[in-house]
Design a protein that fits this description.
heterodimer; A: 3 helices; disordered N terminus; B: alpha+beta
Chain lengths: ~160, ~950
Amino acid sequence: MTPHNLGTVNSDGTRQGLAEHIQYVTVVIGSQLFGLPISQVHDVFVPEKVTQVPLAPPEVEGVLNLRGRIVTAINMRRKLHLKPNDSDQGMMAVGIEYKGESYGLVIDAVGEVLNLPRHEMEANPSNLDFRWAEISGGVHRLEGRLMVVLDVDRLLSSLIEPKAA
Amino acid sequence: MSGAPLSIEWVRAMDDLLREFLTETNESLDVVDVELVKFEQEPNNATILNNIFRLVHTIKGTCGFLGLPRLEAIAHAAETLMGKFRDGVPVTHDAVTLVLASIDRIKDILAELEAANGTEPEGTDRDLIDQLEHLSLSAENAEDAEIDEMAAAMAEEKAAEEVDDTDTYQVLERPLRPGEVSLDELERAFQEAEVEIELPEAEGVEEDDEAETEAAAEVPSKAVAPTVMQEEAKPKNPSAKGKASQQGVSNQSIRVNVETLEHLMTMVSELVLTRNQLLEIVRRHEDSEFKVPLQRLSNVTGELQEGVMKTRMQPIGNAWQKLPRIVRDLSQELDKPIGLEMIGAETELDRQVLELIKDPLTHMIRNSADHGLEEPAERIAAGKPAKGLITLSAYHEGGHIIIEVKDDGRGLNLERIKEKALKNGVTTEAELEKMPDQQIYKFIFAAGFSTAANVTSVSGRGVGMDVVRNNVELIGGSIDLRSTQGKGSSFIIKIPLTLAIVSTLIVEAGGDRYAIPQLSVVELVRVQSNSEHRIERLKDRPVLRLRNKLLPLVHMSQLLGQAEEGDLDEDNGFIVVMQVGSQSFGVVVDGVFHTEEIVVKPMSSMLRNINMFSGNTILGDGAVIMIIDPNGVASAMASHASGTLTDTFEDEQDNEDALVVDADAPISLLLFRAGSDEPKAVPLSLVTRLEEFDVSKIERSNGRDLVQYRGSLMPLVYVNEGDRHKSEGAQPMLVFSDNGRSMGLVVDQIVDIVEDRMSIEVVSERPGVLGSAIIRERATEVIDLGYYLPLAFDDWFMRKEIDSATKTRKLLFLDDSAFFRNMLTPVLKAAGYDVTVCSSAQSAYELLEKGTEFSAIVTDIEMPTISGHEFCESLRRDTRFRHLPIIALSAVVTPASIEKGRQAGFDDYVAKFDRPGLLAALKDVLTSGMGVAA
């Protein structure tokens, strides 16, 4: 476990702290770039010693001990219906808090922190895979690539709520 | 203070005061409840009355001080009425009921007050106050019979009590007077109290008249506040005195917010975990200098943990406080006199557990009162005192607390439970027959089970005992009951002292570790395929013979959906024998490590729906581990089982094949007589059918006896040469079928089918007899089927390999059991093979080393020292034998065992009694393997 403190990293000299801008931590899942609002990201860590949870939903990678807290790791590739990661190179996880509980989103790699103006975010294209649309808050057009904004609340509630019934 | 009424400090002080007031008042009210019930029973006990009086008075006083007019008015009216009691006015049931109702109303208002942050709810209590005042007034004015009428009218209650009331009254009138003399001092205290009552009383009345509008309430409360403040000091003195004498410790204790304690507990839990981690690290380094200080840290942590746990401990009496009141109300409602005895109220347990146990206890008391205890008339007829008794007791036992709810009533109605159980379909007549009564009683814990003949407002709605059981199990406890017809019944609840820290057994299954709470673990059994404890199967369901019981088993991995039945090596491992309620079962695990005290952490809400786990925790080595929920396992076992109930019968035949057979294990044998009196035996699994033919059906043709059987002619064979079939009646015979052909072995009598060990003691030279074995303590001839089959058809065995090869092939047959060697060797020989027999892998190795060449090897799997698997694996490692066909013979044939055999390198895997299968397999491997092997 090697937590990196993200602090308030600033990139490209963009202005920060303005309400019309949102800072995103970018992550790569599959080959796609995603962005998580930095306010929701607790830390970034390398998941180690993950204990599998039998009978758990397939998206749940397992549970792990992160500095004395039990964190539920969610395999984002599986959640997004992408092929499992074959390469052996180290997985990363983004730690988030949701309703007082700790979750770790297992992703391929963590990128940088971007400060993006809110108004530049576009709604999901209508032909977006519904399984993606479900957890996507919108899309940012960056230079050369698109960044899907992950809606953390929708992501986690989609995993928790169907079970509550 | 009165000078600066609404300054900020004042408001803040009020907040604190209010909070304090709420806590204190709630406690006081609980005491009043209990005291009032006592008082009703002993109306002449002035001490009790004074206690109540003092408490109500304090409440009233504080309410006035805090500006809570509604509360004050009720408390005042109630106090006035009690003042009359104290003056010698008779205590009636109705009056007490009314005072209790007032107390309830006060509680309701307090609850709302708390919710609304200190604002009294709107509404009027005129109804209650009117009744209270009426009673007080009538007590004053009319000393006599009028009271009855009034009281009855007020409480809208039964005329029937009139007699009772007059009774109490007379009892009362006498003793209170002498009481006055002896209680001089208290009397003086009340004299003082009396004075201050006068003031608010005067105001109170006006206030009440002007109704409860908030505006009106504001004014008097402010006006009253200072006056009451000064007076507060006075009544406090006697009350303080009283307190000091009762509970001298009170000033040595402090109130601590529960949250603070919870936090402390969490931190200690973390500390325990960290300590465990450190211990784990040190365990890996033998000579660590940390060892000693860590030991010290460990001890201190342990003590700290215990200390913090203690702060959370509360006497169970706290959960019982409301019960006397409930019993009293029930007694009235049901019109039965009921006594409640409480033993061990000082027994302490964790407050979290305490909270959770309150409701189930209340429910059980209600149950006992309602349908446990009989009507008074019935009781008297049964020679019992008219007053029923419910006994509630608590005590510690190990790390648990035992709570028992006992009544001296009629006991559970066994017949009605049976009836209901059948109606609900939870069991069958046949099962009921065999069940001990105590087990039948336990059906009342099943859902939707109420035996109360009538649904009353108290109980009988059928959502009773199952809810109680669920609640108890939820906190890791168990519930049991005993009942004796006519003597009463008792419920025994066993719960852990605390929920925070659990002692668990760490086990491994499917490569993962799991924690099983020790509470539900009864014992551990080690299983090995050739040891005394062996897993057997009934219709694919694993079971274990444990002492005199058959224990249902389930493999942990299968329970957790990680492996299919049959994929598992069930021959080796450990069985964790668990008990949940009355249900016992075994969970098969791959390994057992150690026990560990763990701090239960709740599952993430994403995983909370998995019934199999009750939580998770961090182990000493830092890994997260799941905690198995015994209740989840028990219900999974139950649902697992129900699927097999229906088809049990049709598959009985199959079971015989599945039955594990081993030379040393009991096998099913068919005993019969033929020719002589000595019993003869044949393994039942070889027999296709038992038939009886009318002798007239036996035809003779070509010098032999035949019967028409299933459309073809079946030759009959006699056990001894020269035997004849019966001359008339039915002729029993054993039918052996194979590949569409059948043979009938004529016998005189079929004696029995027995399960017994079969070891052939004396090997026979006589054809047709394998030897003699002791079966059912009698010497019994075990017949050699291999001899008789060719008698029916000369080519019985031959025809199989006629087409395979003309060349005689050399076979090595390896089996440690003499029985099977004797049984199969003739079969193989008859099939045209040149058979060499070995009784162990060692001798087989020697033969092979000597260079003896074989076309194929047939070997048993279950052998001591070197198993068939090991034998095969070692041969496969040798280039000379890499392609030698090897066939496994096993008593256990499951997909898993076949897979294991395949991995070991066997070409085929055949059940021991599957003679045709063995011959077919041999033929297969010899024809296909020919080119390669040569």
